[in-house]
Structure formats: structure tokens, C-alpha cells
Design a protein that fits this description.
The chain has a single domain, classed as HIT family, subunit A. 29% of the residues lie in helices and 18% in strands. The protein has three helices and five strands; from the N terminus they run αβββαββα. Strand 1 and strand 2 form a beta hairpin.
């Protein structure tokens, strides 16, 4: 593993430390978060290491999303949740703590005390400028 830092997720994938694994396929592994937002909060990781969305290949990312898509309704039903959030934190500024790409499948309950982020309006003309910058980068 030259060039990458060993994480707890590497050890879970290799079964070197215990985890409540709930799903596995050829490309992904899913296990319960040890500090859950709510019961059933699950992490889905690719078996092939990537640090974040910025370096995961498209096929591995698609596999993560397929697994999250499969698990979301199952987890919702299993824990009796009212909804599900799907999230991925990429880089410290976005809240990433374990530097191994992973997707959170988070059961939500009405009045569970958690809030979503609060947006703010663009200043006049700013949305068009940002959209143009993004389109320019896309080519």
C-alpha cells in the first residue's frame, strides 16, 4: 500500500477488526457506522481504495451508488425510518474524517433533531457567473 495511508476501513475490509457488515458484493462492502446519526446508519465503501470522490474511478463510484440504492429501502424498512439521507463527505472542509471514499446511508425520523444545511440566495448576477465558470471547466 505504498503511497496511501492505512485507514480503519482497510482493516474492516480485510476483516482485521470487527464491524457489523450488512452487505457485500464483488466491489463494495457496507457496515454499520460505529457512531450512528440514527440506528441503521450505514457506510458503503469500495473494496478498491480511493481517498475521496476526487480520485475514485467512475466504475467504483457507480458501484457505491448501486449498493446505496439497494440498501436504502431495506435499511429504511428495517429500522422503521421516515426517510433516508445519502451523503458523501470529501475533504476536511466537507467533514471527511476517514480518508477512504465512502457513502453514508442515514435513516431519518421525523423530529429526530437533525437539520439539513441551510442555503442562502446568490447576490444579484452571481449565479450566472458561477454557472459560466462551471460550464467553462466542463469544456
Amino acid at each position: 500500500m505504498a503511497g496511501m495511508e492505512e485507514t480503519v476501513f482497510h482493516k474492516i475490509i480485510r476483516r482485521e477488526i470487527p464491524a457489523e457488515i450488512i452487505y457485500e458484493d464483488a466491489e463494495t462492502l457496507a457496515f454499520l457506522d460505529i457512531q450512528p446519526m440514527n440506528p441503521g446508519h450505514t457506510l458503503v465503501v469500495p473494496k478498491k481504495f480511493a481517498k475521496s470522490i476526487f480520485d475514485i474511478d467512475a466504475n467504483a463510484f457507480a458501484a457505491l451508488m448501486r449498493a446505496a440504492h439497494k440498501l436504502a429501502p431495506v435499511i429504511k424498512d428495517a429500522v422503521g425510518a421516515d426517510g433516508i439521507n445519502i451523503g458523501m463527505n470529501n475533504s476536511p472542509a466537507a467533514g471527511q474524517v476517514v480518508f477512504y471514499a465512502h457513502v453514508h446511508v442515514m435513516p431519518r425520523f421525523l423530529n429526530d433533531g437533525y437539520e439539513l444545511w441551510h442555503g442562502k440566495n446568490y447576490p444579484e448576477g452571481e449565479a450566472a457567473k458561477i454557472a459560466e465558470k462551471i460550464r467553462a471547466k466542463l469544456g
